Amino acid sequence: MLLGSIRATLAAARAFSTKAGELTIGGVITANNRGGGGDTLGRRLLSLVYAKRSAVIAIRKWKEEGHTVRKYELNRVVRELRNLKRYKHALEVCEWMTLQQDIKLLPGDYAVHLDLIGKVRGLASAEIFFENLPDKMRGPATCSALLHTYVQNKLSAKAEALMEKMSECGFLNCPLPYNHMLTLYISRGQLDKVPGVIQELKKNTSADVVTYNLWLTACASQNDIETAEKVFLERKKAKIDADWITYSTLTNLYIKGELPEKAVATLKEMEKMVSRKNRVAYSSLLSLHTNMGNKDEVHRIWKKIKSCFSKMNDAEYTCMISSLVKLGQFEKAENLYDEWESVSGTGDARVPNILLAAYVNQNQMEMAESLYNRMVTKGIKPCYTTWELLTWGYLKKSQMEKVLDCFKKAIGTVRKWVPDRRLITEVYNKLEEQGNIEGAEQLLVTLRNAGHVSTELYNSLLRTYANAGKMPLIIAERMNKDNVQLDADTHKLIKITSEMPVCEVSSSFS
Question: Would the pTM of this model clear 0.70, i.e. be above it?
């Protein structure tokens, strides 16, 4: 749950409003709470659900029908689109505004524009946009937006260099840039730099609630209850109102520190601040009560969510199903999954993956296979985690043919695979144990295609041959072709296997 709190805090610190790049922590504005009214440009733009549809065409059509386009309305729509993470359409609206001579853009407008470019087209495009801005527009707002982009990409050197330039220009007179740097250092685990940022902030400006929340998050990451409580009191003396994230972070810390009375107290304060406007906080409440083992409270909060909203979203179903699994209420978790399946049309594999993980952890592979088949039948596309879970499940059963098939499919679902060394080691250990030469060769091919071949992998392959009592062909040549170095273990294993009967299997994989 600490991770969830960190994510929520960092997300809050990264949000820009349309006014001079200032911070926003408000909830998402959805179609259900925009109020009544007839046809508006905002409604038309928000109805463009599919990314391929053009916001510019929608605006042009609105004008052709004789309607007026007002900047404040477009700014509001951009804000809502960003809250909904529909960055492409938000960017299209911003780009359209820059081409209109009758619309006067402010630095804050360009800050939002830059932030969207970074999200949609990447860092390089955001930097080019910043460099091409008129000098008078390269002020605190747009610099903060560029800094935010560096933080998102975890580029410490560029972020620190930009902070120095902003300091030279006198742009560090609000907490936003410092909050970005705190976000960066916390996300990179560079917690030793947090006190220095806080100190610099206090020299130039005043901390806000996001600053204190990030500071608390850093304390929580270090399980430092004493410092966290001092930070909490300092915030109170500074007359900065706490929010639900403040109490969520403290509750997490108290739960980890096994201080249940304090956790109960902060959790009660947190719930007082939870409302429809900050919907995500309900999921945090669910997780916190789960971590405290409060089954009745978990069900109470779930009923409260259902009474507040006409439809639960995937994140809420994910959180509640996960809570039920952690609390050992598997039948209720399965029933809730049935409910999600009947009402949600997203086909998000992350929801069934919770149950899938539970079945795998309990060695219930028949249940796991049944759920997987159900996912396919319902049109839910398996993701990397789905295949990885099945890989682990079959590995426990030593069903290596299925292990290799699922592992290959897992890697095939991602553009760039980050090697899971523990999984690779476990799979190869089992293949070695079985003397499964063909399986070991297949795994090597899969890993080679994913751009991950090493000396240790070849050594594992050689040990598999040794356990099978067979000699591979041209192993040194294959390693050279893969640009992999031979080490002492490699030479030793080659010598051992050279005295064994030749195996032709290796020739088909060379």
Answer: yes
